[in-house]
Amino acid sequence: MMARKQIPDVDLAHPYLETARTALRIEVEGMQKLVSSLDKSFVAAIETIEAMKAARKGRLIITGMGKSGHVARKMAATFASTGTPSMFVHPAEASHGDLGMITNDDVVIALSKSGEAPELADIIAYTRRFSIPLIAITAVAGSTLGSHCDICLTLPRADEACPNGLAPTTSTTLTMAMGDALAVTLLKNMNLTPEQFRVFHPGGKLGQKLLKITDVMDKFEALPLVSENQTMDQALLVMTQKNLGCLIVLREGTTDQVAGIITDGDLKRHMSANLLSTRASNIMTPNPKSIDDKALAAEAVEVMTTKFRSPITSLLVKNDDGGLVGMIRLQACLQAGIV
């Protein structure tokens, strides 16, 4: 493998660093103004989108041209991944047939800093003709877009980070942040649990982090189960057949109440000539560690690796009634990419 190139030390007052810091400060100042600018229009936008979602018919349509179009694509992806059905419609393509993608049940969000992007004209006219709610995100409330929309989310006056004040920098940051604020507010209103959120993120690192214990654990029927009164000659046969490296001992007369667990360590500590005739209850470690079956697999990894003096390799999984439903193993979590 090629060695990484060594980067020479530089003065922290290097002009490149000062230019970058200035750009970031300008954008931070714009963000602070955006925070202070939120008002009743933002509430109205949320209520409009919530009404659409409650009807269970429409989608949130995001549109914009140029850099605003790139931001619109990202916003559509964010809304969709947080539980608000959404899609991007290119305004130029809309004028050549894609207006048919927009239905009377939808809500449209149009992005344009100036509010005068000519490509938006047909979408604006279409929403007005068919009474489709139109939310604008623009820096100019009195623009064509700002004047013809139902709700105008006006971006505050803020300098672009570009030295010439021309390239969309601060304005696109503020537009994207407004979209994030809308998406997060809608997400919070859904009271979505991490498990439900995973429905929209089944793959990648996020999906792995949101795997439920029940997705990874060894199910009840796969567990090596013995009763307290069984002798170790019978118990070891079960341990060998199930091949999970342990034995789970159930209370006598129950089918899911755990009395203890027998691991390799327990067997070594009780190794003797009469081991095979000894009852499981005399070998087991009582009250083994367990976790609730509604927890995430990542929580189980955290418990196994950090909550005890020495890391452990498995946890029993129990339901609300304390009944055994499975066992989650650290090895299985690592194989699933949960770290």
CATH class of the largest domain: Alpha Beta
How many H/I helices?
Answer: 15
Give me the CATH superfamily of the largest domain: Glucose-6-phosphate isomerase like protein, domain 1
* Whole-number mean pLDDT: 90
**CATH level 3 topology of the largest domain:** Rossmann fold
Rg of Cα set: 30 Å
Number of separate structural domains: 2
Question: Which key terms come to mind for this protein?
Answer:
16% strand, 42% helix, CBS-domain, alpha/beta, 2 domains, 5-stranded parallel β-sheet, 339 residues, Rossmann fold, 4-stranded mixed β-sheet
Give an overview in words.
This protein has 339 residues and is α/β, with parallel strands linked by helices. It has two domains: 16-192, Glucose-6-phosphate isomerase like protein, domain 1 (Rossmann fold, 3-Layer(aba) Sandwich), CATH 3.40.50; 213-335, CBS-domain. The protein has helices at residues 15-37, 40-55, 67-81, 91-94, 121-129, 144-148, 170-190, 194-197, 204-209, 213-216, 232-242, 264-269, 280-283, 297-306, 330-335, and strands spanning 60-64, 86-88, 107-111, 134-138, 151-154, 218-219, 225-227, 246-250, 258-263, 285-286, 290-292, 314-318, 324-329. The strands form three sheets. Strands 2-1-3-4-5 form a five-stranded parallel sheet, sandwiched between helices. A four-stranded mixed sheet has the order 6-13-12-11. Helix 1 (15-37) packs across helix 7 and helix 3 packs parallel to helix 7. The protein starts with 14 loop residues before the first helix and ends with a helix.
Task: Please summarize what this structure is.
The protein has 339 residues and is of the alpha/beta class.
